[in-house]
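JOB MANIFEST
job_type = single_chain_structure
chain_count = 1
residues = 236
[input]
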Amino acid sequence: MAKYNRILLKLSGESLMGEKQYGIDEVRLNEYAEQIKEISAMGIQIGIVIGGGNIFRGLSGAAKGFDRVKGDQMGMLATVINSLALSSALTAIGQPARIFTATPMYPIGEHYSNLKAIEAMNHGEIAILSGGTGNPFFTTDTASALRGVEIGADVMLKGTRVDGIYTADPEKDPSATKFDFITYDEIYARGLKVMDLTATTLCKENKLPIIVFDMDTVGNLKKVMSGENIGTVVGF
C-alpha cells in the first residue's frame, strides 16, 4: 500500500549520464522509466522535475564566460531535452506521460499551469515539468520545490547518487554518518548542501517534507513509496 497519494520526484541530470561522461545513458534512463511506471501502477500521482547538468549547467557556463542569464536559459533547455527523453522512455513501455514547459514551447510540450498538470495526473499520466521555473538564477531544486507546492504534492523526493543526507560528503569523507531524519533548521545550522537554500526554505514555509534517497538502485523508489526507511527524511 502506498504511503503517499501524490509526489514530486526530482531527478538529477548527472544521474542520467549513468556510466557515460556526458549526455544520457539509455540503460539508466530505462531503469528510471520502469521504476516510475511501477509506482504509477500503485495509484500514485507523479510529477517529475529533471535537472540538466548532464548537458549544460548555467552556473558552470557563467564561470567560463557565458552571460549568466543566457547560461541559465541554456540550462533550462537542457532540462527540456532530458524531459523529452524520459517521456519517450515512459511511453515506450506503455506509461502515458505529458510534458509541460515553464515557457511556451509548443509543440514540444504544453505551457505549464498547475491545473493542467493536476488534470494530467488525475488521468493517470506522468506530469513532466520541464524548463525550471522559467527564470534565471533559480535552480531545478527550487523549481522542484515550487512545482511540488503548486501541484499539492504530499512529499518531494530528491533522487540522487547517494543514499541520503550525511554529516559531510561521503564520497570525500569516509567518517561521514547518515541521518535518518533531519530538520530544515538543522540543515541551515550545519550548512549542509542538500539543496540550495531557496528550495529548502520554500519547502519549510509550505510544510512540504523532503526525502533524499538513492534513485540509482533499482527498486528503491517503490520502497520509499511503501514507507520503508530508505534515505533521509527532512521535516520539522
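[summary]
Residues 6-235 form a domain with the Carbamate kinase fold (CATH 3.40.1160.10).
The first strand starts at residue 6 and ends at 11.
exit_status = 0
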